[in-house]
Structure formats: structure tokens, C-alpha cells
């Protein structure tokens, strides 16, 4: 198995870019002005103080316009959610309290022509998500979006891969970023190729994990499950065996023989992929599992998953408390086959939100991070509307 932690790159840069655009870093200039004024003459300090006061007054004059725009966005999102509740699901693209100016075709294309029943299983409120995303695209104009709150920088939205609530991460204010391994700047080609056919028969392994003892959660997992049943529940450390090409029987390029990677071969043939915390609460295996069409099993305490404002993680993943690691196989075996199929369908549905593109594309990971920042700038929770 190839080393997995050699080039570990979170998407911090993306989030910082988004947060910088939202926040505007208004207080940086103010702080610099204060530092300059503290070392200058009294006359210079007075001039600087007057300039700062004029800037504050100009900001105050601009603020009502920005706040009106934000209030309009909040109202549009609430109307969309309320209209969807009144109609059952109806025409979710409307929600304006009047005839929709968004055609059904556009609404369906937004979610990739998925039917409403599938959307409701995965999204907390499809109508509110659609409207909030459209409002973000309409109004997000860069650093000026912060002028309504001059103190925003002091209470900044933090964008973190290590979204650990036990370490001060606040899901209502901060943004959880998907953690991802980029070995050469791109997703591994084995995960970019189509996943095996839908039937569960194409995935003979119940669950799979391979990795080091990074942190107490992984140590507990390996102590209980390493090597106990490789034929059904393969759990390895760094001793993952090579898989002969002939074993795959389907000609996959990721079969694990010469030049192949057995790690991805196992992942693409497992129903569940174990994603335990390491030194940090997040795991890059979550994104890898989604790309491999494998249901992620998040083994962690205190983890705030990405995009939870929008996505129902219980519709495409399984959460297991660290204390339940000794019962892990039992818990997964209890999940009936129809439920596994529903979870896998959820994985396929949300995969687009965990994709990287150059340049970024609508609804991809970059824009979902931006949308998370946008919701916190609005101070709006979609699940409550």
C-alpha cells in the first residue's frame, strides 16, 4: 500500500479565500492605521483619527444598503421553505409567494434531474437550499458583503478541516471543510473512474480500513479488528496485501497488481468504508469513500461534518461513537440490504458536492464551502425554515 499521508492537503486555501472575500478583512486596515498613529506625532494622530472617523461614517451610510440586501435574501429563503411546506413539495423552484420565474427544467437541472423523493432523503430542505444558493450567486459580490458588520473580523467565521466541537469548533458560526488527500494536486485516478456496478454483489467486503495508528481512535480500531476476518471485514495497518490482477476478474485498472493500488481496490469493493479519527477528528477517507461509491462510516466523537446545514448525513453515511468500536461489525451487519442500497444511492447523489474542478463548477466542493460561509454571514439556519 502506498503511503497515504505524504501529501495531505486540506482545502484551507479555498476556505480562506472564501472567508476573506466574505469578511473583507476590514479590521486589518483599521489595525494598521492604529499602529501607524501610535508612533506618529499628535497632529498626525489627529489627522489619522479624523480619517478613520470619516471612513466609519461612510461605512455606516453603506451598511443599510448591504443589510437590506441580506434581509431580502433571508426573506426569499424563508418564503421558499414556507411555500414548500404548504404545497408538500410542489414546485420547489418557486417559493416567492407568487408565480415562479424559475422553470421546472432549471430546477431539475440544478439537482441533476433527481426526483424529489431522493432529494428529501439527502437534503434537509431542498427548497431552502436551492433558494439560498441562488441568492448567494445573486448577491455575493466580494469584500463589500461585510460592511453590515464592522466587527465581523473580530468574530470571524473559522473554516477548518479539524471541525472538533470538543476543541471549540462552533457549527453555528464556523465552517467545516472536507478533508482530502491530494497526492499530486489531483484526486487519485482510481477514484475518478466509474464505480463498480450498483448491485451489492459487486462489493463482497462488508467494511474496509487500512492505515496507521494515528491517535487513540485508530489504535482502538486496529487493536480490536486488525486481521480478524480479511475475507469479509478486512482491517489492515500498513500491511495491506497486493491483489493480483487476475483476482479482479473485471479488468479494472485499479486492481492492485503492477502499478495498481490495493487500497482503492478494496475501497471500491466494500459496502462500508471505515473513517476513524486520527490525530484530528476529521478523516480524508470520508471523501475517498464517497468517490469510491462506498458508504462512509464516521468513527469519531465531536465531529461536525461538512455541509450539514444542507445535507442529511444520516442518508449517506453511518455515524459510530468511539465507545462502540468493539461492536462495529455487529452494528454494520444489522443494517438491512435495502437500507444499504438507500445509503449508497445517497452517496451517489451527494458526490458532486465533494468533487474538485479547475476552474470550480456549480455545486462542487469549492462552491459548497462558499455556500457554508454565506449561510453564516446571513446567520440563517436552513433546517429551521
TrEMBL record:
Record's keyword annotation contains Cell membrane: no
Compartmental location: Golgi apparatus membrane
Residue ranges of every copy of the Exostosin GT47 domain listed in the record: 152-334
An example Gene Ontology molecular-function term: glycosyltransferase activity
Topology class, membrane: Single-pass type II membrane protein
One GO cellular component, as annotated: Golgi membrane
Pfam families: Exostosin_GT47
Keywords, in A-Z order: Glycosyltransferase, Golgi apparatus, Signal-anchor, Transferase, Transmembrane
Main location: Golgi
UniProt keyword annotation of Hydrolase present: no
Homology family: Belongs to the glycosyltransferase 47 family.
Protein name as annotated: Exostosin GT47 domain-containing protein
Source organism per UniProt: Oryza barthii
Amino acid at each position: 500500500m502506498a503511503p497515504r499521508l505524504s501529501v495531505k492537503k486540506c482545502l484551507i486555501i479555498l476556505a480562506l479565500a472564501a472567508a476573506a472575500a466574505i469578511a473583507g478583512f476590514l479590521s486589518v486596515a483599521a489595525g494598521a492605521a492604529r499602529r501607524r498613529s501610535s508612533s506618529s506625532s499628535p497632529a498626525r494622530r489627529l489627522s489619522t483619527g479624523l480619517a478613520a472617523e470619516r471612513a466609519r461614517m461612510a461605512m455606516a451610510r453603506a451598511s443599510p444598503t448591504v443589510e437590506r440586501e441580506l434581509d431580502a435574501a433571508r426573506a426569499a429563503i424563508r418564503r421558499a421553505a414556507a411555500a414548500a411546506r404548504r404545497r408538500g413539495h410542489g414546485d420547489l423552484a418557486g417559493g416567492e409567494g407568487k408565480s415562479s420565474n424559475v422553470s421546472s427544467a432549471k430546477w431539475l437541472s440544478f439537482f441533476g434531474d433527481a426526483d424529489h423523493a431522493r432529494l428529501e432523503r439527502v437534503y434537509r430542505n431542498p427548497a431552502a437550499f436551492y433558494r439560498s444558493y441562488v441568492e448567494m450567486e445573486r448577491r455575493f459580490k466580494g469584500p463589500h458583503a461585510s460592511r453590515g458588520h464592522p466587527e465581523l473580523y473580530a468574530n470571524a467565521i473559522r473554516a477548518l478541516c479539524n471541525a472538533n466541537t470538543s476543541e471549540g469548533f462552533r457549527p453555528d458560526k464556523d465552517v467545516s471543510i472536507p478533508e482530502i488527500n491530494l497526492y499530486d494536486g489531483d484526486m487519485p485516478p482510481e477514484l475518478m473512474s466509474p464505480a463498480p456496478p450498483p448491485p451489492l454483489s459487486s462489493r463482497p467486503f462488508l467494511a474496509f480500513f487500512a492505515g496507521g495508528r494515528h491517535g487513540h481512535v485508530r489504535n482502538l480500531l486496529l487493536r480490536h479488528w486488525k486481521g480478524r476476518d480479511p475475507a469479509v471485514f478486512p482491517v489492515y495497518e500498513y500491511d495491506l496485501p497486493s491483489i493480483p490482477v487476475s483476482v479482479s476478474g473485471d479488468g479494472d485498472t485499479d486492481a492492485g497488481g503492477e502499478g495498481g493500488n490495493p487500497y482503492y481496490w478494496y475501497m471500491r469493493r466494500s459496502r462500508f468504508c471505515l473513517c476513524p479519527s486520527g490525530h484530528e477528528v476529521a478523516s480524508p477517507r470520508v471523501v475517498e469513500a464517497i468517490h469510491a461509491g462506498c458508504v462512509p462510516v464516521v468513527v469519531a466523537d465531536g465531529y461536525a461534518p461538512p455541509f450539514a446545514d444542507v445535507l442529511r448525513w444520516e442518508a449517506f453515511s453511518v455515524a459510530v461513537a468511539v465507545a462502540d468500536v468493539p461492536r462495529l461489525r455487529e452494528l454494520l451487519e444489522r443494517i438491512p440490504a435495502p437500507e444499504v442500497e438507500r445509503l449508497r444511492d445517497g452517496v451517489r447523489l451527494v458526490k458532486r458536492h465533494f468533487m474538485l474542478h479547475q476552474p470550480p463548477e456549480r455545486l462542487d466542493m469549492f462552491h459548497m464551502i462558499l455556500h457554508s460561509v454565506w449561510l453564516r454571514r446571513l446567520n440563517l439556519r436552513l433546517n429551521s425554515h
